[in-house]
Specification:
Layout: H1 7-10, H2 14-30, H3 36-66, H4 80-111, E1 114-117, H5 124-138, E2 143-147, E3 161-169, E4 174-180, E5 188-194, E6 197-202, H6 203-209, H7 211-214, E7 220-232, H8 246-257, E8 262-268, H9 273-283, E9 290-294, H10 333-339, E10 342-346, H11 352-363, E11 367-374, H12 382-392, E12 396-401, H13 409-421, E13 425-427, E14 434-435, E15 439-446, E16 449-457, E17 469-476, H14 479-493, E18 505-507, H15 511-527, E19 533-538, H16 544-555, E20 559-564, E21 581-586, E22 591-592, E23 595-599, E24 606-610, H17 616-620, E25 622-628, H18 632-646, E26 652-654, H19 673-686
Length: 687
């Protein structure tokens, strides 16, 4: 039997696996032990994830169909057209489940005296407030489109929500219109409290209540409004105009995305059929698009920002990020890391150390050069301002900024322009490769020598996401590692040269080969009766080559433990193929984001932190860095925190062929790994 004949058995399709990851997010919204407002926010995360899935993954599969290809090799043995149909059915079921969960949460909110009311539940005491709010805040922001057969429908904005309005006129004719739900107005409007009762109305329902004010020039006898949303292909298409700068090309491509091909059309299942037919005809929606009947409200991603209403009892307790023992925000970071390496594990520990490091470099007269990679910046970025400050102070600052960081292009373009204007040397990646590595190297004159300091991370240098993403950052003055980091920056500047690295593992040239060599060493150790095992933590694994190599190790008897948050195309626990592989996924309060590779190495473990998931794009089409951990204390710390995650029996789900997302339960003492990890660092501070 050939490999292609067995693909259905060997791998889980990545799109289906991703949808099952999003089902785990939905489980958090359903979980009665999760605080109520947090459950609403998980519903928002679920919806936001789904939007991005359709913009990127569904759109990619649709492109394969439109090109007349089957795509079986790329899609794990499933034909592209069949996969689109499977996706649509899974999403319809998940959307239905999410609506039921939303109804349950809203009923539970009533028990807490929080009422989300509709337009037909507004009482007299609330009318004046709503009228005044509409006139002052909403009406000036409205875009209302009157439709008729002679006018071409304007391109509806990607992922914007619209109310499709149907008016039955006095002469029985129909008039259709669209109201764009304005993003500049808060989706959730808090009404005046009545005693201890809190009331919220969604902007959508406020608009429904005010339809007669919006359409008062029309002589209609009946009016109704139902929500629709269109999702467009989110891929960037670059033009070949040589006269344009790279910033201009990316900026133009981002603008073009707004009018990309539609890939999903979601509508209120209670919409009038004639309204639905009219809109689908006008928009050119066809049977290769995902057409999904939904509930009354779309863009439920907005629930990520559901107001707290002062009810801290209905949210997770905020944790105070801990300091790093031995590393002070009030003293020089350079002096500290000159003596030894330090590890930051955000958000358990404060990300402020990264900002402090760059601010110190910006002011230090002995610092001559700063080189850093940037993938996603915060909306208000202290990282960017520190780099600009350094350039103003005469430092040579080089920033390799990835303008094509999906859905963050516009923010990166804006900061790139600011940095360029202040004299920062910008590098826009490498032709054909995204720069996804997370690293910084600083050169400082010390006497007659130049000494390097720097940091390497598993996550983006982003103050906002550092509060909710778990990521490791290694601060080091190890000249061996930082010399390799400098070589990678040299590759950015002269990418026709392929450099060799003695310590770092770098994509796209060396990662697969280096990881295979590390796996082969574990296989050999087991064959010789020595200690051999592999422990991996990552966001996703979808490279069939990497999956096959782990299958090979499993068949040789190597015990493999995997913590995979998202896509997992590998099928663990199958006799004769993967019986020595166990895999779990943890979805909880924080987004699990680190990539960690641990190899047993006959009792002297080799430990790496990395920016790279085991996906084809990370290994072959991006600049990624995996960094060895040489400090024994830090190595122990990473192994300890991996073990805490592996012992999770509260929020861990078993990954298996059935894709059932079954919780991993056992009779041992309950371990909720994110809470236990924070406790681990508290204990370290106190010991």
């Amino acid at each position: 039997m050939t490999k292609s004949d067995t693909q259905n058995y060997q791998y889980i399709n990545r799109e289906i696996s991703w949808l099952q990851f999003n089902a785990r997010v939905l489980q958090e919204a359903e979980d009665e032990t999760v605080p109520l407002i947090e459950r609403l926010r998980f519903l928002g995360i679920f919806s936001n994830n789904l939007d991005e899935f359709f913009k990127v993954r569904y759109a990619t599969v649709k492109r394969i169909v439109d090109a007349g290809k089957a795509g079986k090799n790329e899609l794990g043995g499933i034909r592209a057209q069949e996969l689109l149909e499977i996706i649509t059915q899974i999403v319809i079921k998940q959307q239905s489940d999410s609506l039921e969960i939303l109804n349950i949460i809203q009923n539970r909110l009533k028990d807490e005296n929080i009422y989300i009311i509709k337009e037909n539940q507004i009482d007299d005491s609330q009318t004046e407030f709503i009228r005044r709010y509409f006139i002052r805040k909403v009406s000036p922001a409205l875009v209302t489109i009157i439709l008729n057969d002679l006018v071409v429908l304007p391109n509806l904005k990607d992922s914007a929500a619209y109310l499709a309005v149907r008016m039955v006129m006095a002469d029985e004719s129909k008039q259709f219109a669209l109201i764009e739900i304005p993003k500049s107005v808060n989706r959730f409007i808090e009404l005046p409290k009545q005693g201890d009762k809190s009331f919220i109305i969604l902007l959508d329902d406020l608009l429904r209540y005010c339809l007669k004010d919006i359409f008062n020039i029309f002589d209609y006898k009946d009016i109704s409004a139902h929500m629709i949303k269109i999702t467009r292909d989110g891929e960037l298409d670059f033009d070949s105009d040589l006269s344009k700068s790279f910033i201009e090309k990316v900026s133009d491509s981002v603008k073009h995305r707004k009018i990309g091909e539609p890939v999903r059309f979601v509508y209120d299942k209670n919409i009038h059929q004639d309204t639905l037919n009219y809109l689908m005809s006008k928009m050119g929606i066809d049977n290769t698009d995902s057409i999904i009947p939904g509930g009354r409200y779309h863009n439920r991603r907005d629930y990520m920002s559901f107001p707290s209403l002062g009810r801290t009892d209905l949210m997770y307790d905020k944790i105070e990020p801990l300091p790093i023992k031995g590393l002070s925000l009030e003293d020089s970071i350079f002096k500290a890391i000159k003596k030894k390496d330090y590890l930051l594990y955000a958000p358990y520990q404060t990300f402020s150390y990264v900002v402090k490091f760059l601010r110190e470099a910006a002011l230090d007269p002995s610092v001559k050069t700063i080189r850093i990679t940037i993938y996603r910046l915060a909306e208000i970025s202290h990282i960017a301002s520190s780099l600009i400050n350094a350039a103003i102070n005469g430092k040579s600052v080089t920033v390799a900024i990835e303008l094509r960081a999906r859905f963050d292009e516009q923010a990166n373009i804006a900061y790139a322009q600011q940095m360029k204007d202040e004299g920062v040397n910008l590098i826009f990646g490498v032709q054909g490769l995204k720069v996804h590595s997370k690293m910084c190297v600083i050169e400082r004159e010390e006497g007659k020598k130049v000494k390097r300091y720097g940091f390497i991370s598993t996550g983006n240098f982003n103050e906002s996401t550092a509060k909710i993403y778990t990521d490791y950052t290694l601060f080091t003055s190890d000249q061996r590692i930082l010399k390799d980091v400098n070589k990678i920056f040299s590759f950015f500047e002269t990418n026709y040269k392929i450099f060799r690295y003695k310590h770092l593992i770098a994509s796209p040239h060396y990662t697969k080969k280096a990881i295979f060599k590390l796996i082969d060493a574990e296989i050999e150790n087991v064959k010789q009766g020595k200690i051999g095992y592999i422990r991996l933590k990552m966001n996703s694994i979808s490279s069939y080559d990497m999956v096959d190599k782990l299958y090979e190790a499993s068949n040789a008897g190597v015990k493999i433990q995997m913590i995979v948050r998202g896509i997992c195309c590998l099928i663990p626990g199958v006799k004769g193929m993967s019986e020595n592989i166990e895999a779990i996924s943890i979805v909880d309060k924080f987004l699990e984001h680190p990539r960690v590779y641990i190899f047993g190495n006959n009792g002297d473990p080799k430990v790496y932190i990395s920016s790279a998931d085991w996906m084809t794009r990370n290994i072959e089409n991006r600049v990624e860095v995996s960094c060895p951990i040489y400090d024994e204390d830090i190595k122990r710390e990473i192994i300890d925190t991996f073990n805490i995650s592996w012992s999770d029996n509260v929020k861990a789900r078993l990954l298996c062929n059935s894709q059932s997302n079954q919780y991993r339960r056992n009779d041992k003492e309950k371990v909720r790994s994110q809470f236990a990890t924070y406790q681990y660092y508290e204990d370290k501070m106190n010991n």
